[in-house]
Specification:
Elements: H1 15-22, H2 26-34, H3 41-54, H4 60-67, E1 72-78, H5 81-86, H6 88-101, E2 107-113, H7 116-128, E3 134-136, H8 146-153, E4 157-158
Parallel strand pairs: 1-2, 1-3, 3-4
Helix pairs in contact: 1-2, 1-3, 2-3, 7-8
């Protein structure tokens, strides 16, 4: 065995490997997996069987780039970490959010911040970096600046 490769995880299967195993082009693999284009059911089945056999699944980062979506929702909580761990409300909230997001293929990005300035800067950075598709806001107040901030950033949010 090549000494440079010892101890490394096996390489992740590629779309090219799936295409070769199914006897189709990489474009056909993409179309079969995404349900686009004119792919016969027999070809789609052959592609899906090859993908399963090889243990291949589409790259989440490549899909996010193509769709310009991350399938990630932010939950930014303004609380000290020691208080957050002792508040049963937040464990229930996180469990409930995960229970709704995960079956739909979304992930939850949790951040803890100390103050409103940090929270605002974090939302601005996450949006600028294209890391989130939306946010869940907690602890609303009558004069809460976050809805206006997120609206200005073009970020969908729920309260």
């Amino acid at each position: 065995m090549n000494k440079r490769l010892e101890g490394r995880a096996p390489a992740r299967p590629t779309i090219k490997a799936v295409a070769a195993a199914a006897g189709v082009s990489t474009a056909a693999v993409s179309q079969a997996v995404n349900g686009t284009g004119r792919i016969s059911e027999a070809t789609r089945r052959r592609v899906m069987d090859a993908a399963t056999e090889l243990g291949w699944s589409p790259s989440a980062s490549a899909t996010a780039l193509r769709r310009a979506r991350t399938r990630t929702i932010a939950l930014v909580v303004r609380r000290p970490t020691d208080v957050l761990g002792s508040d049963p409300h937040f464990s229930e909230l996180i469990t409930g959010l995960e229970g709704e997001l995960a079956p739909r293929g979304y992930g939850l990005l949790l951040h803890l911040v100390a103050d409103m300035a940090q929270e605002s800067a974090l939302y601005e950075r996450l949006v600028a970096e294209g890391r989130i598709d939306g946010a869940v806001l907690t602890d609303a107040r009558a004069d809460d600046p976050r809805p206006d901030l997120l609206r200005g950033l073009g970020l969908p949010a729920v309260l």
